[in-house]
TrEMBL record:
It holds the Pfam family Lipase_GDSL. Belongs to the 'GDSL' lipolytic enzyme family. This is CUTIN SYNTHASE2. It comes from Hibiscus trionum (Flower of an hour). Residues 1-30 form the signal peptide.
Length: 369
């Protein structure tokens, strides 16, 4: 009755208020998703950079819904795509550098990841123009300012604090830095155990920066079995076996990462950071591919040379006809099917895979807050 008696002007004000509150309701109900890191989670930022670390040409994306390259280092969907579906997003967060990233897209979250980066600024120097981790965090601050301008600082802060964050970085600090060339600068500067300690200390600074920027649920993945990817089998493997030196690096790094995360949570007083044991997740299908429906875990679907592990995946590469039979899509990156297996463990895995809890438990817990 009151509404029907309102003047046109007051009705317009009411409509604007309802629209505003409707927008706020969407922000409160939706869980945004932010992604930081390297090529394992890059969804196309490098497409907009002058760099050789790109996946913007066929056959990348051959199994993506559009059948075209998107900048994902995958034959299809990558880990952020699959996690996004699990947490109820109707679309994946866009690369932050995408010209389409504006308006309502800001409410979904954003992907800041960039292929080739590491924890350290000098990792991936051969790729030249990539979004190093400090730059990804700067862009996150820029994103927050844009969001605040759109919906107000209070609602922007709420969206960020309630969001899920994924960070995947560290592997390149070994393969594209310490072990990139014999007698690299970092390998002459540090023994491997000391280098791992240095990486962990620098990673801790990045995670605390994320926390200070408002992140309150952060999935932190370890490295996979670095010495067992097709590229390392081809370049450093021993009679078909994994590179022992890179495997040693992963075995030193991953437990210390978990220990550091536990320390941060204890310091903060809550489980902000969740560690994902991606080394174990990968090892499951690397050690017994047939148990997961793969015919091979040592040869890439797309590549050339031994194990299809040399060079880039291009239109001139060998290409397998059935990607679901291969654990690795290209010399370094899992296939979409392997990514699905990894995300299954992230969602429902035991404490051997996810510590202190898996993502399904996090979602159930957070829904009660």
């Amino acid at each position: 009755m009151i509404i029907s008696m309102a003047s046109p002007a007051s009705s317009m004000v009411l409509a604007l208020l309802l629209a505003a509150f409707g927008c706020i309701a969407v922000i409160v109900e939706a869980r945004a998703f932010f992604i930081f890191g390297d090529s394992l989670v890059d969804s196309g930022n490098n497409n907009y950079l002058e760099t050789t670390a790109r996946a913007d040409s066929p056959p990348y994306g051959i199994d993506y819904p559009t059948g075209t390259p998107t900048g994902r280092f995958s034959n299809g969907l990558n880990i952020p795509d699959l996690i996004g579906k699990q947490i109820g997003l109707s679309e994946s967060p866009l690369p932050y550098l995408s010209p389409d990233f504006n308006g309502k897209k800001l409410l979904v979250g954003a992907n800041f990841a960039s292929a080739g980066v590491g924890i350290l600024n000098d990792t991936g120097v051969q790729f030249v123009n990539i979004l190093r981790m400090y730059r990804q965090l700067e862009l996150f601050q820029e994103y927050k300012r844009r969001l605040s301008a759109s919906v107000g600082s209070k609602q922007a802060g709420r969206l960020v604090s309630q969001a899920l964050v994924l960070i995947t970085v560290g592997g390149n600090d070994f393969v594209n830095n310490y072990y990139l060339v014999p007698f690299s600068v970092r390998s002459r500067q540090y023994s491997l155990p000391d280098y791992v300690k240095f990486l962990i200390s620098e990673y801790q600074k990045l995670l605390m920066k994320l926390y200070k920027l408002g992140a309150r649920r952060v999935l932190v993945t370890g490295t996979g079995p670095l010495g067992c990817v097709p590229a390392e089998l081809a370049m450093r493997g021993n009679n078909g076996g994994c590179s022992q030196e890179l495997q040693r690096a992963a075995s030193l790094y991953n437990p210390q990462l978990v220990e550091m995360i536990n320390g941060l949570n204890a310091e903060i007083g809550r489980d902000v950071f969740i560690s994902a044991n991606t080394q174990r997740m990968h090892n499951d299908f690397v050690s017994d591919p047939q148990a997961f429906g793969f015919t091979t875990s040592d040869t890439a679907c797309c590549g050339q040379g031994p194990y299809n592990g040399l060079g880039l995946c291009t239109q001139l590469s060998n290409l397998c006809p059935n990607r679901d039979l291969y654990a690795f899509w290209d010399p370094f990156h899992p296939s979409e099917k392997a990514n699905r297996l990894i995300v299954e463990q992230i969602m429902t895995g035991s404490n051997q895979y996810m510590h202190p809890m898996n993502l399904s438990t996090i979602m159930a817990f957070d829904s009660r807050i």
